[in-house]
Amino acid sequence: MTLSALIAQFGYPAVFIGCFLEGETVLVLAGFAAHLGYLGLPAVIATAAVAGFCGDQTFFEIGRRFGPRVFDRWPALARARPRVERVVARFGAYAAFGLRFLVGMRIAGPIAMGAGRMTRVGFAVPNAAGALVWACLFGAGGYVFGAVFTRTLEHARRYEEWAFAVVAVVGAIVVTVLHLRSRHPPPPAP
Predict the structure, then answer these.
(1) Closest by alpha carbon to 139, among 39, 48, 11, 12?
(2) Residue 190 counted as domain residue
(3) Which residues, 6 or more positions from 167, have their beta carbon under 8 angstroms from its beta carbon?
(4) Among 118, 131, 121, which Cα is nearest to 92's?
(5) In sequence order, which ranges of 74-119 are alpha helices (DSSP H)?
(6) Number of structural domains found in the chain
(7) Is residue 41 a part of any domain in this protein?
(8) How far, in Å, CA of 33 to CA of 28, rounded?
(9) Quick one: which H or E segment has residue 12?
(10) Distances (CA, A) of 145 to 13, 21, 31, 140, 148
(11) In angstroms, how far is CA 157 from the centroid of its own chain?
């Protein structure tokens, strides 16, 4: 099975799962795939927006139900909690819109907000708006990257699948390194 056939068959489910959990790398790649004609950009954006909204709502509910236990179990989330609380104290419900754009806050933010005093509706409305803006920006960004790539390189069609695979591998490595670093913080300075 070719890469284009895999993307055509599993692209939208991969976008949904990736954007439900975290998603920037997956969404940029999906935008790139849309430029290549493997996926449709409006469908990529819609899938990402719905998945991003559903993911953050799920993490919010986890925070409401299990907040203290989640922070006890995952110290990286507990370390992010004070930052989230400062942002919420300063911006209120608008924090639900903006935290998805801050590195390391996509999962910690909704959990901390759910564990705090934010209401479901107070979180859901700005979360929906943020998910839509986020999906548009990163999906279109991937699409534009694909356009620039194909215009910049002569004979780019020969290398598109390779470039897509390289970006996917680099993205997976970055996500893995960031995940491992968050699980094993550096020792405190003496």
Answers:
(1) 48
(2) no
(3) 28, 29, 32
(4) 118
(5) 75-91, 94-98, 108-115
(6) 1
(7) yes
(8) 9
(9) helix 3-21
(10) 22, 23, 8, 8, 5
(11) 28
| The pair of three-digit structure tokens given for residue 149, joined into one six-digit string | 């790539």
Counts for the chain of helices (H) and strands (E), in that order: 8, 0
What type of residue is 113?
M
Q: Is residue 23 part of a domain?
A: yes
Walk along the chain (190 residues) and give the pLDDT tens digit of each residue.
787 788 888 889 999 999 998 878 889 989 998 998 889 999 999 999 999 999 999 999 999 999 889 988 988 888 888 888 888 889 888 888 988 888 778 888 899 999 887 889 999 999 999 999 999 999 999 999 888 877 776 565 666 777 788 888 998 898 888 878 777 666 665 6
End-to-end Cα, the chain, rounded Å: 54
Using DSSP, state whether 39 is helix, strand or coil.
coil
The first and second tokens of residue 17, run together, are: 């799962």
Domain enclosing residue 56, as ranges: 3-183
The radius of gyration of the chain from alpha carbons, rounded to an integer in Å, stands at 18
